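Ticket #4471: structure export looks truncated?
Reporter: QA, pipeline team
Priority: medium

Steps to reproduce: submit the single chain below to the structure queue and open the exported record.
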Amino acid sequence: MSPLNSPSLFNVTIVRPEFFYISGFAGIPHTKYYYVFLCLCFALTLLGNTFIMFVIYTDHSLHTPKYIVVFNLAVSDLCGSTTLIPQMIDTFLFKSHLISYEACLTSMFFVFWFGSVQSFTLTVLSYDRCVAICFPLRYNEIVTSKSMLVITAILWIFAGTAILITVIFINRISFCKSIVVNSYFCDPGPIHLLACNDNTPSAVIHWTHPVIILWLPVLFITGTYISIARALFKIAEASERLKAMKTCSSHLILVSVFYLPVCITYAMGSAIQLNARIVNMSLTTVLPSMLNPIIYSLKTEEFTESIKKLYRRKKIHIAVRNK
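Actual output as written to the record:
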């Protein structure tokens, strides 16, 4: 038979399992308490981010470019937690470890899509703070509501396209080694290890995604804060410098909570034990979405004033209705 007619060249068989088994927190004692903690985190995430969105929507003084991005962050936090936490609780608390192949890829897409949007949104917030402090007189000219809406739309499309490409390439992998995924969800990293054919394109994308979604945003945010620090040193009055720094404090806390744990975990690589990695990454995924509304409510003066104004309005409304 001629090599050109060989079926091995044209009839490539892709082996796809019917199910994957999410092994997750195997061998970790007292995990039920952790799953109860996840339920509490999910409830607080729903309440907190819904509250943030409600306040921004109802208070017209918050209809500014900055709060368009904050609203976008709340949406991505809410969607990301809703995609991940109920599935984790079902998988580990109710022992539903098996997930169909199609559901696994779908879950992977949405978890990483919303996670990528969270990362890009924090990057856009750093751009907003950089322009506000470095170019205060031109801020309203450079950063407009229209430009922020366009930027947020682009980041959703870009993140979705990047993750979709990853899922398409994973769909071209043959799985004939095992169906056990050593993670807390359908994580592409452990899934790549199950491949038994040439998955070079998928592996390349797997290594470039952390660069695009994690390391480049961290590099950009670091650059913006270097520029902010230089601008702050040029401010003569200490009170004005402190006021400018306060506008960045909430964002810096958000950035630290979101990026530091995941950067440390990625940097340590295989040096970190598997279960420690799984617990750390699951907390890194869950906690920022819960903490973001709390941080913004407590650390942002504009938002605190809006909450007080909303409370007074509600109090007056109840008093009038009771007369």
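Status: closed, not a bug. The export was complete when the record was re-opened. Leaving a note from the reviewer for reference: Residues 100 and 308 are 48 Å apart (CA to CA).
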